[in-house]
Design goal:
The structure is a single chain. The chain is α/β, with parallel strands linked by helices and 410 residues long. The protein folds into three domains: 69 residues, Orthogonal Bundle (Arc Repressor Mutant, subunit A), CATH 1.10.10.10; 127 residues, 2-Layer Sandwich (Nucleotidyltransferase, domain 5), CATH 3.30.420; 159 residues, ATPase, nucleotide binding domain (Nucleotidyltransferase, domain 5), CATH 3.30.420. Helices cover 39% and strands 19% of the residues. The strands form four sheets. A five-stranded mixed sheet has the order 5-4-3-6-10. A five-stranded mixed sheet has the order 13-12-11-14-15, with helices on both faces. A hairpin with a 4-residue loop joins strand 4 and strand 5. The relative contact order is 0.14.
């Protein structure tokens, strides 16, 4: 299923204005489309001539399409034909999405607006961790072949917890999977025969909020990811902070006020040991709520009304809220985003997070600043695809687009 390059030559030397203008047009259509060229010029601040040039390029690349059926008269002259992202039919490009987690992975097919066209959960309990990439890549190939509907495939975005260096496509450290300095992006690309970009899942969710989510996220945000792995991400003015070696966001050992839970590091009260899926599922077994540790089963039991499960998840939510207050006080973001299974399933747990965060924060008094991801249950698929789509929106002419031809069957 090899996709070849577009055949475009090397980028011409210049001051970057052409690239910036093209990105501005594409982002304006993302935010306001369908939208006519004249409105794009007003909204973006570009000249009509610049909008015309960059729109022509984006139409040629297959990222925009014209909607003549929605054309409105513009007074004298030709009607204004709106432009929109190329998403609404079977010829618009899509991205594959892969979130590798513990003990399962989430796969998806996502369009240019961050809308999930297909999603699949892949369990790999009991599978050797070195076998996971091959299994996940094979499943994603099958999903793309069966669900892309003949659409061109741009490539795949991949996300995973812990320390990732996205520029190199390397998982530096993932203790739960036993992966160290693993070139995962190259490995997946070889198996998928598609371009693959890789990043940490907390940064990926944060970037998806900036690209597709609430306007406040573009000003500043803190994102706390609580699963089997606990990570955080920080965004200022639309840029996600990575730090030297892309090591920012490791908050597993952030102290949770009031927690005395022992941690493997030798201390007590660390966020990972207190609130991770692994820790909470083990506690559910100790309390006799579950016969074996399974965070998804715990959430399902709570949804079914099990009082013990509901109380344990409320306790976890309160611990998350107290830890989130520390992050809010450091950054004071416009938006604090929490990705946590129970909060996504039931707003009751988000209210517990908000209550504790506001009670412990010294700068935040507005509960509406604390939210779950805009994509809801689709968060992992959208975030993973965003790892691929964000650089495309940032520089559509410089991005290494594959030839926009349909993906052959596996």
């Amino acid at each position: 299923m090899t996709l070849t390059g577009t055949g475009r030559g090397p980028r011409r030397a210049g001051d970057g204005r052409r690239e910036a203008n093209t990105a501005a047009v594409l982002r304006t259509v993302l935010d306001g489309g369908p939208v006519a060229r004249g409105a794009i010029a007003r909204l973006s601040g570009l000249s009509p001539a610049a909008v015309s040039r960059q729109s022509t390029e984006l139409l040629r690349l297959g990222l925009l399409r014209e909607l003549p059926g929605l054309a409105a008269p513009a007074g004298a002259g030709r009607p204004q034909v709106p432009l929109d992202l190329h998403t609404g039919d079977t010829s618009g490009p899509v991205a594959g999405a892969l979130h590798i987690g513990v003990p399962g992975s989430t796969l998806g097919v996502v369009d240019l607006r961050g809308r999930v066209l297909a999603r699949h959960t892949l369990r790999h309990d009991g599978l050797g961790t070195d076998e996971v990439p091959a299994m996940a890549a094979a499943a994603l190939r099958e999903l793309l072949a069966g669900s892309a509907g003949g659409r061109p495939v741009l490539g795949a975005g991949a996300a995973i917890g812990r320390w990732v260096r996205p520029a190199e496509g390397v998982v530096v450290r993932h203790d739960a999977l036993g992966w160290y300095d693993r070139p995962l992006a190259a490995e997946l690309a070889g198996r998928l025969e598609l371009p693959v970009r890789l990043d940490n899942h907390a940064r990926a969710v944060a970037q998806s909020e900036i690209l597709f989510g609430r306007p406040e996220a573009r000003r500043s945000l803190v994102h706390l990811f609580v699963g089997n792995v606990v990570d955080a991400a920080f965004g200022i003015a639309g840029v996600i902070h990575q730090g030297p070696g892309a090591g920012a966001g490791d908050v597993a050992h952030l102290p949770v006020p009031g927690s005395r839970t022992p941690c493997a590091c030798g201390r007590t009260g660390c966020l990972g040991a207190t609130a991770s899926d692994t820790a909470v599922a083990a506690e559910a077994v100790r309390r006799g709520i579950l016969p074996r540790p399974d965070a998804a089963a715990l959430t399902a039991a709570a949804t079914d009304g099990d009082a013990g499960a509901r109380e344990l998840l409320r306790e976890r939510a309160r611990a998350v809220g107290r830890a989130l207050a520390l992050l809010i006080d450091v950054v004071n973001p416009d938006l604090a985003v929490v990705t946590e299974q129970a909060c996504l399933a039931d707003p009751e747990y988000l209210e517990e997070v908000r209550g504790q965060a506001l009670a412990h924060s010294r700068v935040c008094e507005d509960p509406e600043r604390i939210v779950t991801p805009h994509a809801g249950p689709d968060v992992l698929a959208v975030a993973s695809a965003t790892v691929l789509l964000h650089p495309l929106f940032a520089d559509p002419t410089g991005y290494a687009l594959p030839a926009l031809s349909p993906l052959p069957p596996c």
